């Protein structure tokens, strides 16, 4: 039993999305899921731009605020990779650790693209 749990945990760490989280939040209502995902993608795109601009200006307080807000949205829909990335950005921005932040900021585009790709695959259409 412990081995199965460990395997499941490792498998989940490879996924960028936990669809069970979204399904639980929507009660399995596919139309509601689609609406939430559309809003999530649009909101995240906008907020990632704000985050990028704050990073360019090294406005660490704004980085903390936006990363915290995005972390909440990512967590609510089950966007695991983005949630983890936002948590790290928030933590490193508090400490003003530019080297770590630079690495994370570079990883945001690909992480978001992967998440959007999984959303498209899950929903069977362009969101």
Short description:
This protein is mostly helical. It has one domain: HPT domain (Four Helix Bundle (Hemerythrin (Met), subunit A)).
Instruction: Encode the helix/strand succession as letters.
Output: HHHHHH
Number of helices: 6
CATH H-level superfamily title: HPT domain
What structural category characterises the helix and strand content? mainly alpha
Number of domains: 1
Instruction: Report the uncertain regions.
Output: 3-13
Q: Would you tell me the overall average pLDDT?
A: 87
Fraction of helical residues = over 70%
The rounded Rg comes to: 15 Å
- Distance, first to last CA: 38 Å
Write the layout of secondary structure elements.
Elements: H1 2-14, H2 19-26, H3 30-56, H4 60-77, H5 80-95, H6 98-123
Notes on the structure:
This protein has helices spanning 2-14, 19-26, 30-56, 60-77, 80-95, 98-123. Residues 3-13 have low confidence and may be disordered. The chain has a single domain (2-123), classed as Four Helix Bundle (Hemerythrin (Met), subunit A) (Up-down Bundle), CATH 1.20.120. α4 runs antiparallel to α5 and α5 packs antiparallel against α6. It is mainly α and 127 residues long. The chain starts with a helix and ends with a helix. It contains six helices and no strands. 85% of the residues lie in helices and 0% in strands.
Keywords:
6 helices; elongated; 127 residues; mainly alpha; Four Helix Bundle (Hemerythrin (Met), subunit A); 0% strand
